[in-house]
Amino acid sequence: MEREEMILVTGASGYVGNNLVRRLVQAGKPVRAMVYSREKAEARLAAVLGQIEIVTGDVTRPETLAPAMAGVDAVVHLVAVAIEQGDQTYERVNTQGTIIIVNAAKAAGVSRFVNMSQNKADSASPYRFLASKGHAQDYVAASGLDWIALRPSVIWGPQDEFANMQARLIKLTPLIFPIVGDGQARFQPVWVGDVIEAAARCLDEDIATRQAY
Predict the structure, then answer these.
(1) What is the CATH number of domain 7-153+191-212?
(2) Buried b (16+ CB within 10 A) or exposed e, 159-176
(3) How far apart are CA 205 and CA 141, in angstroms?
(4) How much is the pTM?
(5) Cα atoms in the 13 Å half-sphere on the side-chain side of 203
(6) What are the b/e assignments for 114-141, b being 16+ CB within 10 Å?
(7) CB 190 within 8 A of CB 126
(8) What is the pLDDT along the chain (213 residues), one digit of tens a residue?
(9) What's the CA gap between 198 and 195, in Å, rounded?
(10) 69, 110 in Cβ contact below 8 A?
C-alpha cells in the first residue's frame, strides 16, 4: 500500500496556516506543521493536535530545516512579515527566508512547492514589502521546482487582524471614520476560506503548475 504524500506547511500557526492545516486534516492528508513557537502552535491547532506532526523551524536559519523537510513531498510556504519588527525585516524573512526554504525543499527532493505570494508583488515595485515578495517569487520561479504561486490581496475572515481592526474602528467612531488619501483607494479583500481552498487544490496532481494564480 502506497503511503500518503506528506505535506509541510510553513507558518502553520499563523492566520492562514492554522486554517489550512485544519482543512488538510479534514481531507485526510498527512500534515507536518512547521512553526516558530511550539507553545503558540499547540494553542492555535488544539483541535487537530493528535492528527498532525508539529516541528519547530526558522526559515532564516537553514540548519533548523532538515527535520521539517525529511520525507516531505509537498510544501506550502506561508511565512512572511507584513510589518517589520527588529530583525524580522522584509528582506530577511520574505525574500531570504523563501530562498532558504526553496533550497531546503530542493535538497529534500520535494515534488511540489506552493508559494503564498501577494497581489502586485513585483521585484521592481517601489514598495519594499511588494518588492520583497516579488524577489521571493522570482527565485521560486527560477528554482526548477514544480511550483505554484498564489497572489491574494487582503485576506479577511474570523480572527484576521486587518479587516477586524477596521470593523472595530467603525464601531468606535460610527459617524467619523478616517479615510486614507483622497478616498479613491480600493481594496480587493478575499475570504480566508477561498484562499485555503485554493492552496489545498494546488496540491492536486492535475492542476497546472509553474503558474501564478
Answers:
(1) 3.40.50.720
(2) ebeebeeeeeeeeeeeee
(3) 18
(4) 0.88
(5) 25
(6) bbbbbeebeeebeeebbbbbbbbbebbe
(7) no
(8) 456 799 999 999 999 999 999 999 999 999 999 999 999 999 999 999 999 999 999 999 999 999 999 999 999 999 999 999 999 999 999 999 999 999 999 999 999 999 999 999 999 999 999 999 999 999 999 999 999 999 999 898 876 655 555 555 456 555 555 555 565 656 678 999 999 999 999 998 788 899 999
(9) 5
(10) yes
Q: What are the cell numbers at 139?
A: 527565485
* Residue 202 DSSP label: T
Alpha carbon 135 to chain centroid distance? 16
**What is the number of residues in the chain?**
213
C-alpha grid cell, residue 36: 516558530
Domains of the chain, residue spans? 7-153+191-212
> In this structure, which amino acid lies at residue 179?
I
